[in-house]
Amino acid sequence: MAMDAESKQQHVHAVFESIAPKYDFMNDVLSFRRHKAWRRFTMRKMEVQPGQKSLDLCCGTCDWTIALAKASGGEAVGLDFSRNMLNIGQAKVDKLGLGGQIKLVQGNAMELPFADNSFDYVTIGFGLRNVPDLMQVLREMKRVVKPGGKVVCLELSKPSWQPFKGLYYFYFEKLLPLLGKWLVKRYEQYRWLPESLAAFPDLQDLAERFRQVGLRNVRAYPLTGGIAALHIGTKGNDGA
Q: CA-to-CA distance for 20 and 8, rounded, in angstroms?
């Protein structure tokens, strides 16, 4: 399903608005219940320090935003273009009493409404494959992170070794859309997921994209046989 950037953005927005109530549940299904472990691994690699300020893009229902706020004790901002997702996230934030620490913003990851050099960390979890222009989002992430700060992406990826690769693609392309249909009555929305991954860079290609926007000390970690990946890049202390 070929789409121009505007059509992709409209389609993705409609998908996530519609699946918001079941988003957390389907993340378990999509990741074989591994997404929480992946995020814990990511947090260890990030080495968040007390008082540091973070921005979580495509924050969805805000689980990672909340984890960042708890880890630092400092300000965390979550941005997403889906109001339905943010409403669910805000309920979580309020229940935990973290409203003083966490601010949620409806906005576009392609045009961040923040000043240059504003955050110690800028993260994006399971959202980069859905944006119209991933290079533009990476440039924006680099722009708003402070010199010496880190740009962090946790995302689904592409397994490279057989037979796991074949089994995974069978699951992702054939079974997952059916699970979406059976479990949350959303076949068309979950058919979008394998399509979004097919055009997405693999582990090494995405690391090279990080370098192309000027990030330094880029590290890439395959997770669970390569079905997901963590990428971390650092903005130069000179701001370049």
A: 18
Predicted TM-score (pTM) of this structure: 0.84
* Length in residues, the chain: 240
Q: Is the distance from CB of 180 to CB of 186 less than 8 angstroms? A: yes
Per-position DSSP letters for 124-172, written without gaps between them = EES-GGGSS-HHHHHHHHHHHEEEEEEEEEEEE----STTHHHHHHHII
C-alpha span between 124 and 216 (Å, rounded): 18
128: nearest Cα among 120, 137, 116 = 137
Q: What is the C-alpha to C-alpha distance for residues 136 and 127, in angstroms, rounded to an integer?
A: 13
Tokens matching residue 28: 């378990």
How far the first Cα of the chain sits from its last, in Å, is: 37
pLDDT tens profile 104-158: 999 999 999 999 999 999 999 988 988 989 999 999 999 999 999 999 999 988 8
